[in-house]
Each structure stands twice: as C-alpha cells, then as structure tokens.
Design brief:
The chain has 173 residues and is mainly β. The protein has one helix at 5-16, and strands at 35-36, 42-45, 47-56, 62-66, 74-79, 88-89, 98-99, 101-106, 112-115, 134-138, 141-146, 150-155, 162-165, 171-172. The chain has a 6-stranded mixed sheet with strand order 1-10-11-12-13-14, with no helix packed on it. The longest helix is centred in the first third of the chain and has 12 residues, at 5-16. The termini are far apart.
C-alpha cells in the first residue's frame, strides 16, 4: 500500500523539528536586546585550560558561571541578595557588616537562595562589572543585569530553570 505523498512529507517535518526548550516565566527579564559581553568577562580558573565567566553587579553581587572539567554548569552569585536575611558578616571591602546570601543555579536543577556564612570567595574579587542591559553566557547558562537592580540567570537546557534577584523579592524557578 502506498501512502499519499503529503502524509510522508508531514511525517518527515515532525521527525526533524527541533526540540523546544521551556520558555522562562513571563516576569523573567527579556534578554533579547541585551549586549553580549562574555569575552570581556572570561577568566582563567586554576588551570589555563579552564575558563569561567566572572562578573559583579552595580548592587554589589559577585557571580561566577563555571563548567569545569566536564562538570555540569553552575552559576553562583554572592553578596547582598535582595530579600535575604542572612548571616551578618564583614565584607573586607565594606566599612560595616552586611547581610549576605548566595543564589545558586546548577544545570538541570531549580535555583536556590540561602544564607552565606562568610565573605565573598576570594576568586571573585575584582570581577568585571556587568552593567544594566548586558549579559554573559557560558555553555547553557546566561546571566544579565536589567535596570532597577535586577540580576537574572537562566539555564536554557533541561526546562529553563533560573533565578531572579531584585529589590521587589528574589525568586527561583
């Protein structure tokens, strides 16, 4: 039995269609018009063949996107996470104790926000500023800074998990 040509063509299109990634939540910042500045934020980590993306934000966060040694990519942001009532610690660059938190996103997992009992990791000191309207990408992770002290990161693979750190309330998805 011969199948009509239009049935075979339709089946072919379905089989070759790319898999769609989950869209970010509607209140996630739209990075479409952001400038990509990844190349100016790359840093060598421990060995010359391992690179990470490091950045700081105008509101005092220090962040790193890493995918080292075949390990699934991770984003970590340390500092005064909005809405976080963490352990008060002394930042060596600050004049007084501040509340610190850590926001973390691992590939294929929801983000987390928790308290941090210590200062910024020393490997993040001097991380280049990521200004509002700029974004960086490493593997499947993208982070950007939006106007209004908003820092957001998303893993574009495996369901589109991420976090948003903002004065109106930080959240994960």
């Amino acid at each position: 039995m011969k199948l009509p040509l239009f049935v075979l063509a339709g089946a072919s299109m379905v089989l070759t269609a790319p898999l769609a990634h989950a869209a970010p939540p509607p209140n996630f910042p739209d990075f479409a018009g952001f400038s990509v500045v990844t190349s100016t934020h790359l840093a060598t980590y421990e060995r010359s063949d391992q690179q990470v993306v490091k950045f700081s934000t105008p509101d005092g966060l220090a962040c790193m996107i890493s995918a080292l040694g075949g390990v699934a990519p991770t984003v970590r942001c340390y500092g005064p996470v909005p809405g976080m009532t963490g352990q008060a610690v002394t930042d060596p660059n600050a004049k007084a104790p501040r509340d610190f938190g850590v926001a973390q996103l691992r590939a294929a997992n929801e983000g987390t926000i928790s308290s941090l009992r210590g200062d910024y990791p020393t490997d993040l000191t001097g991380a280049p500023l990521l200004a509002p309207g700029e974004k960086v990408t490493q593997t499947t992770m993208t982070c950007g800074v939006a106007p209004g002290a908003v820092t957001a990161c998303i893993d574009t693979a495996d369901g589109g998990h991420g976090f948003v750190l903002q004065p109106a309330g930080s959240w994960v998805f």
